[in-house]
Amino acid sequence: MTIDIAFIGEALREISKVIPLTLFMTITPVLLGIVIGIIVAFVRIQQIKIVSSVLNFYVSFFRGTPIIMHIMLVYFGLPMLVDSVANLLHLKIQSNSIPILFFVILALTLSAGAYASEIIRSGILAVPKGQLEAAYAIGLTFPQAMRRYILPQAFGQSIPNLTNVFIGFLHATSLAFFLSIKELTGVANIIASMNLKFLESFIAVGLIYWGISIIVEWVSHRIEKRVTAYSKGGFSS
């Protein structure tokens, strides 16, 4: 058995066509997940009754179960909820009009939010308490102190872990092929099946994933250096 190097090049060209879709399916959930994570982290740190308990369950459930299950729960469960609400309120909305991509992004966003919340919460707790006390001493409110001093420092410490989340969800987009969305792995599967060259196809898609991951790590390193330099002074900055 020999490896068809030329076919790897052909596969790379074909698979590369869906890089924009794969990046969209990665960047959107991670960015939305970070927003959710910040809100969840704040509420859990403040220990608001009932709400904190609900959010603790949310984080525990989504971190303790596989992403493929989240996708399937949203894909099969949300349409039932939409149809039930539409029938109850006599709305002209049908679940079959919702794009499949929406279900995948929603499931990935909920998963990303759970992971991001723990990363951000640990980053906030790692900032010395004196920073917050000093902010209170000059009359800043909790949101102002968080925005101007605590979050920049927490974000700097969280960047490596958030980068890992991004790369992890880049790989998780491959699960969308179960719902017939043609992302990187899905197209590699199709090309492999059509040409019976599975090794070459998966070498090609592996190179693409690896290349994107290297770029993400490089960008992350640059951002981390800038954020760390900005926040090194802590409250004095």
UniProtKB/TrEMBL annotation:
The chain crosses the membrane at residues 21-43, 55-78, 98-116, 162-181, 201-219. Residues 19-220 form the ABC transmembrane type-1 domain. It comes from the Bacteria. PROSITE patterns: ABC_TM1. Keywords: Cell membrane, Membrane, Transmembrane, Transmembrane helix, Transport. It is a multi-pass membrane protein. Signal peptide: none annotated. It is found in: Cell membrane. The keyword Amino-acid biosynthesis does not apply. Belongs to the binding-protein-dependent transport system permease family. NCBIfam families: HEQRo_perm_3TM. This is Amino acid ABC transporter permease.
